[in-house]
Amino acid sequence: MKLKVSVIGTGYLGATHAACMSSLGFEVIGVDVDAAKIELLSASKVPFYEPDLEDLLQKEIASGRLTFTTDFNAIADVDVHFICVGTPQKADSLAADLKYVDAALDAVAAICKPGALVVGKSTVPVGTAARLRERLLKINPGADLAWNPEFLREGFAVEDTLRPNRLVVGVTSDAAEAKLKEIYASNLAENTPWVRADLPTSELVKVAANSFLATKISFINAMAEVCEAAGGDVTVLAKAIGYDPRIGNRFLQAGIGFGGGCLPKDIRAFMARAGELGADQALEFLREIDSINLRARQRVIELVRRDLSDNLAGKKIAVLGAAFKPDSDDVRDSPALDIAAQIAAAGATVTIHDPKAIAPARKRFPALGFSEDIEGALEGADLVLHLTEWKIYRELDPAKMAKLVANPIMIDGRNALDREAWIAAGWKFRALGRAN
Ligand code: UGA
């Protein structure tokens, strides 16, 4: 008999996890307190843009294995409950807000059967899993709790969930590990590395991984600052150091830096937690990683002022990209949207194009200008900013685009466009970390 699974919290992580678990043959019930979200998902609609997810959702719902509900009683006889709710940054501090995780634990503890395993996947401050396990056992002594951090990237969520590069399980018993091995049997058959850890280590693996990635990006953006000062080229530098396999060339794309719902809040929550543990000195460097990251946004705005004028009032600026990265409509802490909003606040008329993120961007900043087509955004622009590296922007014809704008000035905030091609078509071309 296959185990029955529930997924509590149906955002990016939960909706993807639920559909993927169903595609592995498990009977899955997704639960969320947000009735509108459950209604959409039940109708096979994904409330955000994630390649391949809607197709998979449709297929799995049609198979009869996957259902969604707002009723926790519907998951009372489930064997394994995955907690996938969000842990956003608190409004008044750097720390993570655990109210959704706590509420999910209480809700599942109240109804789960003896022998059930609750598995946390949300990103939490170290120590949370042990605390939740204690709480669960107090309410429901026959149940157990494990932690199983998730490393999926937005834009590759289905692929990363079905074929993770490693599986990390924080457990306190062999029985809990055995149950998780049953869940991930197909990955184990494909030799996916399996790391058994204690609860605190499993929580730390997640934030350590995201801190390392953030550090890699801010490292190359720091090199970009030095290249600019010294007349070097950060794209050549990144390529050259990346050939060293100890360094590797991934996550060395210099530009306007990292954003999204994970990296920025995770490094901040990690610092806050280390402070509580008396280990704040160990993570002092993350403060610098955060400020290098935020500085990149200011450096783009300085380039705009240098080319146009200190006073941006009345200038017409086209912005290509609003999402925090391509293949996503997520605008949470998006560097692109932040830059667009700051330039608009400085008096410029900003028109933003994005293939998927216009609706969420408009919701956040209703006063900004938006265009559904690239031409509409570029029409009469004094300057163009390329801020999210969607493939369609790399495929633009610079000569055709030059005819649309008032001034052919391109600032490539992602170092992703073909500089020579744009210059050949008559554009003044600027980029972070390269001679400008
Ligand atoms: C990140 C991690 O990569 C995942 O492993 C993790 O599971 C996830 O957070 C999470 O904690 O849930 P994600 O937020 O989808 O995934 O985005 P990334 O692909 O890591 O990109 C983050 C940001 O870094 C983006 O704004 C991207 O534009 C920027 N970036 C990335 C750079 O500026 N330069 C690079 O070389 C790479």
| Percent range of helical residues | 40-55%
* Ends distance: 64 Å
CATH topology of one domain: Rossmann fold
- Output the strand order for the largest sheet: 3-2-1-4-5-6
**Kindly state the mean pLDDT as a whole number?**
97
β-strand percent reads 5-15%
Query: What would the principal axes of the Cα set say about the shape?
Result: globular
Bound molecules: uridine-5'-diphosphate-glucuronic acid
The CATH superfamily name of one domain is NAD(P)-binding Rossmann-like Domain
Total strands: the figure is: 14
Structural class: alpha/beta
Largest sheet: 6 strands, parallel
Architecture overview:
The chain has about 425 residues and is of the alpha/beta class. It has a domain at about 5-195: Rossmann fold, CATH 3.40.50. Helices cover about 45% and strands about 15% of the residues. The protein has 18 helices and 14 strands. It has helices at about 10-25, 35-40, 55-65, 100-110, 130-140, 155-160, 175-185, 185-190, 200-230, 235-240, 265-275, 285-305, 335-345, 360-365, 375-380, 390-395, 400-405, 420-425, and strands at about 5-10, 25-30, 65-70, 80-85, 115-120, 145, 165-170, 195, 315-320, 350-355, 370, 385, 410, 430. A 6-stranded parallel sheet has the order 3-2-1-4-5-6, sandwiched between helices. It has a 6-stranded parallel sheet with strand order 11-10-9-12-13-14. Strands 7-8 form a two-stranded parallel ribbon. Helix 18 links the parallel strand 13 and strand 14 (about 430). The longest helix is centred in the middle third of the chain and has 32 residues, at about 200-230. The chain is globular and about 70 Å long. The structure holds uridine-5'-diphosphate-glucuronic acid (UGA). Uridine-5'-diphosphate-glucuronic acid binds near residues 210 and 259.
